[in-house]
Amino acid sequence: MTFYDLSIIATLSATFAVACVYFFLFWLYRQPYIGLWAVFWLVHFLTQIFYRTPLPQITTSTLIGIQFVSIANYILLVFATSKFLERKMHKGWYYWGIALTLFSDIAVYFNAPFSITAFPTLAYIAYIYFWHGWMFIRHFDSKSWGKTVVGIAFIGTGLHTLDMPFLVSVSWFAPWGFLISGILRFIIAIGTLMLYVEKNFRELVAKDNQYRLLAENAADTIYLYRLKPSHGFDYVSPSIGKLTGYSSDEYYESPDLLFSLIHPSDAFWVENLVSNPVTVSTSPIVMRLIRRDHTVIWAEQTTVPIFDEGGSCISFEGIIRDISTRKALEQDVSRLDRLNTVGQMAANVAHEIRNPLTTVNGYLQFFRRKDEFLSYKDHFNLLISELDRANLIIKEYLALCQNKSRDMGFHQLNSIIQDIYPLIKAAANATSMDIHFIPGSIPEIHLDGKEIRQLILNLVRNGLEAMEPGGTVTIRTYVKDGDVVLETQDHGTGIPPHILENIGKPFLTTKENGTGLGLAVVYRIANDHQAKVQVVSGPSGTIFYIIFKK
Predict the structure, then answer these.
(1) Which of 39, 67, 99, 473 has the CB geometry, 3.0–4.6 Å to 463, for a possible disulfide?
(2) Please, which residues have CB within 8 angstroms of residue 241's CB and are 6 or more apart in sequence?
(3) Domain check: are 473 and 454 in the same one?
(4) Residue 475: its pLDDT value, please?
(5) Taking every annotated instance into account, which residue ranges of this chain make up the domain Histidine kinase (predicted)?
(6) Phi-psi region of 398 (alpha: psi -120 to 50; beta: other; left: phi over 0)
(7) Distance CA 332, CA 527 (A)
(8) Sign of the four-CA dihedral 256, 259, 260, 261
């Protein structure tokens, strides 16, 4: 076997090996440009087989076919590399390829000299190599030296392609020419693979950073909890600190920390999730968490179980979301729904009760003035006071009716309080208590003056009834965060927690003679004015904030 044969076999073997590698990578990653590269190297391998036959012995039709396939194959290479570099391929490549193919075929048909037949095609192929070298060196997004090596190899291959018409007749150079061509193409193939791996690695790092950025800046807590071989967190996003008061590092150090924060009444749900992950994980789990500062929040947990090949649950991916605000809103909606029900009942029942009560009250007063009933005067007074009390309950009951017409307009809240201030001041003095009004600089707001008077009277009366003689109810108005705030503060004993959780419900009261409708009316009026009610209560007293949106 001659050196010429060995050089061709070595070149063909290297080209075939590169084609096999590209086909394997395409099978792994399914990237279109890798598949096109694989096709290019396979076609290039097949065309190189014909190089073993001296050119004069190749038939005209075969030579035309080889030239056509070669140009088409190199256009395919340009298309694949453009995809790899994320650039659009110019249509000029197709036009020049078609023109050169026609020119070469005509030259072969008329038996033109080899230099005329082959040089235009070789020049086109060389230009493709030069273009590749320039694109990899100047436009490939990489700081490594690999792109320079690949670019130089492409340029070297282009130069070697141009020398073929001049050196093809030099017999001693032909084997070395094949070896040089094979080495350069091998460098191109291996270098391109390295750049592909580098490109994929950079994209993977970029995506990892993006996902990590999303996870670490998300308001919801994202976690991955491992069940096997040992319990523990593989990942928990930093937002867990805001949610529970404990940092991510504390959860890594103490695998059962999160479970210890679950409210005892809700621990069953998590235990059920671990024992029956497929069924329980189909819907979110709503539970209470006890924060580091001992406050209780509502959380919603969505989990996705991960199973091993044996079907055993080995870990959980999950998202925990703070839904305390949503829960408070649901409670408000429930409270307003109950108020709506009471209001509808009030419209139907009130008149049926008040009419007979008025009749009975009138006759009792009439009989009380009769001389023959003087000995029962105290009994009549007791009956009349009880009827008055029943009328008061019905009056407050009617105030819950939502079908009541309103006269909305722009009013000064301070002026409304000043108008009723003598009335509430007298009521406080009658019970050895006092009222202080501290007006702030506030703008006019859109409201119903009569209903706001009712709201203020109910709040003040509620505060007075919560205190012992000598106490003071303070009324303040001010602007906070652009909203107008009405504040009433008493110095009573505070509202018990179980009452505070349900405050605003009709007929809920701690007072011996209370109706339980005063605060329900307050909440109804506040809702009609799209105002928010906030309550802060403790052993030193209770503060009500009515926040009117400006």
Answers:
(1) 473
(2) 247, 248
(3) yes
(4) 93
(5) 348-550
(6) alpha
(7) 10
(8) positive
* Same structural domain, 396 and 476: no
Listed residue (522, 466, 463) closest to 488, CA to CA: 463
Q: What is the CATH number of the domain that holds 421?
A: 3.30.565.10
* pTM of the predicted model as reported, rounded to 2 decimal places: 0.42
d(CA 523, CA 327): 17
CB 154 within 8 A of CB 136: yes
pLDDT score for 356: 81
- Estimate the crossing angle of helix 114-134 against helix 60-84, to 10 degrees: 10
Encoding tokens for residue 298?
A: 């509502």
* Phi/psi of residue 358, nearest 5 degrees: -65, -40
CA distances for 236 relative to 211, 221, 232, angstroms: 13, 7, 10
The total of other beta-carbon atoms located within 10 Å of residue 501's CB is: 10
Give the pLDDT score at 438: 92
Predicted local confidence at residue 391, as pLDDT? 77
The pLDDT of residue 500 is 73
Same domain, 243 and 306: yes
Strand 472-480 and strand 434-438: the pairing is: parallel
For Cα atoms 105, 106, 108, give the angle at the middle one, nearest 5 degrees. Answer: 65
- Assigned domain for 216 exists: no
Tokens of 428: 């406080």
H-helix or E-strand containing 185? helix 173-217
> At which residue do the structure tokens 């094979």 appear?
182
Overall domain count for the chain = 4
Q: What is the 3-state secondary structure (H, E, C) of 89-155?
A: CCCHHHHHHHHHHHHHHHHHHCCCCHHHHHHHHHHHHHHHHHHHHHHHHHHCCCCCCHHHHHHHHHH
- With beta carbons less than 8 A apart as the criterion, state whether 465 and 433 touch: no
Peptide bond into 229 cis (omega under 30): yes
Closest CA to 288 of 319, 330, 331, 243: 243
**Same-domain check for residues 204 and 229:** no
Q: Structural domain of residue 347, as residue ranges? A: 330-404
Whether residue 39 is found in the same domain as residue 182: yes
How many residues are recorded in the chain? 550
Residues 95 and 12 occupy one common structural domain: yes
- Could you tell me the CA-to-CA distances from 311 to 277, 281, 307 in Å, in that order? 11, 15, 5
What pLDDT was estimated at residue 109?
A: 72
Dist. CA 336–CA 342, nearest whole Å: 10
Below-50 pLDDT ranges, the chain: 402
